Amino acid sequence: MKMRGRESDREEALLQVLRGGAFYAIDELERSLNCGADDLARMVDELRSRGYDIERRPGSGYRMVETPELVLPADIRAGLHTEVVGGRIVGYGRVGSTNAAALELARRGAPEGTLVIADHQTRGRGRLGRRWESPPGAGIWMSLILRPAVPPERAPAITLVAAASVTQAIRAVGLPVLVRWPNDVIVASGRKICGILSEMEGAAESVQHIVVGIGINVNQRPDDFDPSIRGTATSLFAELGRTVPRPDLAAGVLNDFDTAYHRFCRGGLAPLLPRIRECSSLLGEHVAVWIEKQEVFGQVLDIDDWGRLVLRDDHGMIQQLPAGEVRKIELSD
Ligand code: BTN
Predict the structure, then answer these.
(1) What structural domains and CATH numbers belong to the chain?
(2) pLDDT digit string (tens) for 60-72?
(3) Helix axis angle, 7-18 relative to 26-33, nearest 10°?
(4) pTM for this predicted structure
């Protein structure tokens, strides 16, 4: 086996060996991974914390008893043709939140494009402090570390870029969807199939990193959803009546996003606006938007090149809203 320097590369190499299913002697593993006993024990602990069941038997070494039902990094990588996105993939069987894990990695200097993906999140985070249901085996729960050289006010538009990429990838497997500005992907009935949570860290004048967390409901049955969201959430399985392979769909999102993100970094949102407008469920609609503890009513005119929702409010004033919680309203409301 080839020796590689980085700890995460070593972990991948260790996984590859252990997937063989036999017992592997500890000194042999140390030699082939070019690491010491402590390093090896730490890597095994890390893999166990991600849901791998690894047995240690005195005199025999380590053996993989069971791998978690994962969206395997290797399966995603096989479908990628990206320049930056997914250059490094960190996979978990189970994790609190891929956004939290990605933020931690970003603070420790993980390169742009690093992807964190999990089969199961125990503390999935939604917008506005909400919880995001992320059961095992059912969805794509992934977070991408980005380091765009744009001013912080421009960075939130990346959520829209990502939402458009999710839209293209879901349409490509046969389901028509639209983006409900700024971060939801919805089906024709208005039910939500994907949510995006972008979390940014940095100084006032520059972005250190932004983590774009994408949650796509893929293979849940309608009854799998908590009763509190059963009326508003849906999955690809519920809409299409068939399961969709998660690695292929994840790769579809990431391939599209890689290209779109490069265009965004070069030219801002303007070159992407035609596709963002085409994906939008709100243009021309009458809406109510919750923003900073008040509700603004009006008709949506556009999304501008800062990613803001442009609307003519009920007093005839043009407003450009940077964020908010939108609901469509019927004029008779
Ligand atoms: C929302 O619509 O409220 C946003 C939901 C975002 C969920 C995803 S799942 C992957 C990533 N990790 C998290 O903890 N949250 C995001």
Answers:
(1) 7-64 (1.10.10.10), 73-279 (3.30.930.10), 286-328 (2.30.30.100)
(2) 999 988 766 566 7
(3) 140
(4) 0.82
